[in-house]
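Bug #77: duplicate submission created two jobs. Keeping one. Sequence:
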Amino acid sequence: MKEKIISKASDMFLKLGFKSITMDDIAGEMCISKKTIYKYFCNKELLIEESTATIHKEVHQIIYSIIAKNYNAIEENFEIRKMFKEMFKSSDTSPIYQLKKHYPEIHNKVMSREIEECNTIFKQNIEKGIKQGLYRSDLNIETYVRFYYILIFSINGNTKSEKEAQKIELEILEYHTRAMATEKGIIELEKQLLNPNI
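Kept job's structure:
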């Protein structure tokens, strides 16, 4: 039952926001009593913490499954972007923005978890792109990882509208890729930008 509550709550938090969803809403949606939820979670903050940990795990499992498909480095980043776009398509307000505004302590925990994992993913992507001749070989990898991380997460944490955040994220991805790309990389980037699903 605990896992079912986390799963339903995660889904509702992503779609409708961390602030607006109440324990009553979750209980009503699941056709269970609020008492049942409180049996597993003494307060909403604990449920949000567990839900964000579950979402984090699911997101990174999908990212690693995309990486395993062995796309080229630029295509890989666009596939990951598509996954995020799909996952948050029904959200009006950016979930990260809401978390930062209403539950700053939980937001800080989420971000500290993300830093390590995302930095590893970004670093591996740049190394892969250099090997494939899509990114310049003279890049300071650590600096570019840091630039990209700061840009992506500052947008998510400071842009209220999810639609607006996704639009800016695409521009950040293009900006990041152009800054690193070789001529071969620019050709691949232009090809990805023509995809109507981005």
